[in-house]
Write the structure tokens for this entry.
Amino acid sequence: MKKIFGYVAGAIVAIAVIVFAATSMTSANSRKTTKSTTAAARITLCTNYKKNARDLTFKNGRKGATVTLLNGKQQCVKKTTLKKNGTFTVKLTKKQAKTLSECATFKYSVAKKGAKTYTCSAKVYGKTTVKKTTKKDTSASSSSSNCNN
């Protein structure tokens, strides 16, 4: 009887050690949290973006951060990774500038390892193209913007 009790007690201790080890590993992994970026440290546009402009200048850039530009239709226009800290300029092709300017607003998303990804919205300044209707063509739309903001 004492031998059986000894085997059972040993098995219970072994199971307890395994459960304790598994719990310790899980809690160690759950401590790895990402830092949120304060409003002052976030990457922001230096100037207003004018329609079809090919340069966007940002400030507060951090080395290793990835900046993704999205138009108003949530389509990726350009993705770039920063090589140094500070102010930086994203250069766009004519096609990319046109795609970014399709809607009244666009977004840029910033991701960096060890920090939470955040998204900011910016307005597109400048005149919007309006298609004029003539007497012959009455089916033309009065607005060229077809965005779901």
Observations:
- The beta strands are 44-45, 49-50, 55-61, 66-70, 76-81, 86-91, 105-112, 115-125.
- Residues 20 and 26 are 10 Å apart (CA to CA).
- The longest helix spans residues 2-30.
- The longest strand covers residues 115-125.
